[in-house]
Amino acid sequence: MLKIGDKTFSSRLLLGTGKYPSFEVQKEAVRVSEAEILTFAVRRMNIFEESQPNFLEQLDLTKYTLLPNTAGARNAEEAVRIAKLAKASGLCDMIKVEVIGCSKTLLPDPLETLKASEMLLQEGFTVLTYTSDDVLLARRLQELGVHAVMPGASPIGSGKGIMNPLQLRFIIEQATVPIIVDAGIGSPKDAAFAMELGADGVLLNTAVAGAKDPVKMALAMKLAVESGRLGFEAGRIPEKEYGEASSPLTGMVSS
User: Fold this and answer.
1) What's the alpha-carbon Rg for the chain, to the nearest Å?
2) Residue 140 CB: number of other CB atoms within 10 A?
């Protein structure tokens, strides 16, 4: 089970809700993924405007925990305002902190990310922080008291997969809170690899929404996350420089 703050989940796949070709495809992809946590950008939704189409209306919200994010925030103060807006709408007290520092690479601003996380913790939010794969920054966030750290595998939406597996492994080994790999996942192999490294979960959006068949890809990602987790728990064999027979050589009948 995945425990974040005071909430517990059976699925380790967190799914974004943007960029789908239609509400119908989005709804079916969410269903087959069996994700229990759905994330979305507050600034891209008219959550108070009843006349505007809203993906939330398409779903049975009793089945999901919503994870609003602060995408679009350029500094800590903007992130806090967005989070308070989401909370005021009654969506959830969980928030994914996202403060982008570079519009070209979409990499997070480490200083403003730390500041926003600290401010939101003081406001009583359950804080999940999107960050780079910086080991020391991940540690600082945990020391602040965030409820989950979400290091990016590679730049948002790039589909490049895990660029720095060693960095991710260092973060995971030193973790005191759940580590959820976020951003850059491109295929099921990337999701499985993240879980094999020991990540507690994977959050993705574009890899599913942008696939030729988002529904099939959502199912593939679900299975990849489950498979990767099982592989991590099972414990893989050590790598060797040379081959080694899988059958014993002793006791063989001589020719």
Assistant:
1) 20
2) 18
- Pairwise CA distance, residues 113 & 227, whole Å: 32
Count of beta carbons in the 10 Å neighbourhood of residue 176:
10
| 126's tokens | 């359950």
Kindly report the length of the chain.
255
- Residue 168 parent element (H or E): helix 165-173
Are the CB atoms for 171 and 199 separated by under 8 Å? Answer: no
Residues annotated as part of the active site: 96
In the block, tokens 């199912």 appear at 219
pTM comes to 0.88
Q: At residue 22, what are phi and psi to the nearest 5 degrees?
A: -160, 160
Work out the pLDDT band at 43, boundaries 50, 70, 90.
Answer: low
The DSSP bridge pattern shows strands 94-97 and 180-182 to be unpaired
pLDDT, tens only, 120-148? 999 999 999 999 999 999 999 999 999 99
Angle 226-12-7 from CA coordinates, rounded to 5°: 145
How far, in Å, CA of 55 to CA of 35, rounded? 15
Measured from the Cβ of residue 171, the count of other Cβ atoms closer than 10 Å reads: 26
Closest CA to 32 of 186, 213, 232: 213
Give the C-alpha separation, 112 to 94, whole Å: 19
Nearest-angstrom CA–CA distance, 100 and 30: 26
For residue 190, the one-letter residue type is D
Residue 34 CB: number of other CB atoms within 10 A? 16
